[in-house]
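As a warm-up, study this chain.
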Amino acid sequence: MITLAIAEDHQALIDGMKLLFKEEADIMIVGEANDGETLIELVKNKKPSVVITDIRMPKCDGITATKIIKEKYPSTKVIAFSMFDQEEAIEQMKAAGASGYIMKNSSLQTLLNAIRSIAKNETFYDNAITSKDETSKETIILSRREKEILRLIGDGKSSHEIADILNIGKTTVDTHRKNLMKKINIKGRTELIRFAVERKYDF
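Now compare it with the structure written out below.
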């Protein structure tokens, strides 16, 4: 049995993963955390075989938490779970002791493959990272207005609220939302909100 701990500061993502793993007979979630300090305490008490952790978290980020976990509990394997595919972030997690790095927009099967591979002392890095190229980067060039709207989405604003703040029509906001989803290559309002929350300070 693979015992799993999940660290993510957005509770909705944790709840989603718990539902997805519910039917997996070989995986048991033993705890969850919304910040790095709680994750370290969770690992201390539950000794999970695998940890999935976000990089950006309050109190203690995923990189620091991973380093502490690997120093104190070396048998626990760590998977980074992030929206960020920057080489620096990946290398920092590797240096901290992570055995894998998965993008948040990856499929459930990819995440399951990563968990099971890492539980067997293997490493696993998302194909979205290893195969990315300059063309894929060019598709996420945003206009000034798109950046403004993305930041406001990340702040939890509705289309009506964004329209009022920017003094534009709601239909215009909705059109920008659709264009953003095409550029970022994601589907659905929930994924757009998640992307906006994770990336708003990058734009």
